[in-house]
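Form 7-S
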Amino acid sequence: MSLLSDFFANNPWSAYVLAFIGPFVQEDVAVIAAATSSANGGDLMLLLTTWVGLIFSDGWKYWAGRLANRVPWAARLTTSPRVAAAREQVHKRVGLALIVARFVPGTRIPLNVACGLFHVPFVKYLPLISLSAAFYVGLAYGIFAALGAIVGEQVRQAIPFVVVPVVLVLVLFFWLRASRRKPAA
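Output:
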């Protein structure tokens, strides 16, 4: 057995801890890892744990935005006309925005912080991030379960080694592309 399998064999709860903490580090990799593991006959509790991790990961960003209102320069920033227009758009379309942001690289963190900064009611925000996270986790699981059923057992075990690097490259591509854009004047 490898060192990693020995570790998980001797620490059965470690996979759940990693599934919960994973979204705080890199959401897409955590979801893909849990989905592939579960689709390969692993424990569906990993998906549930990852889903809860996604909710907590998004939630702390929301509360960071809420706390930013106590910082004088951040509070002044929210009074500008452009930010006020953005606030109105976030409030009008918060559900759609949170679902779209779940799938568009580089938008989740700013939107979650903005929801807090713009005082989107938490009782409205929490169910929306819970639903979008459930949809994302369920979609990932469904894709990997279907791929596994189509390609068979031997190829199915190799799927994470192909899909995770592809997702990482795509995330890096979109992040670099977004960072090269010039801000509107």
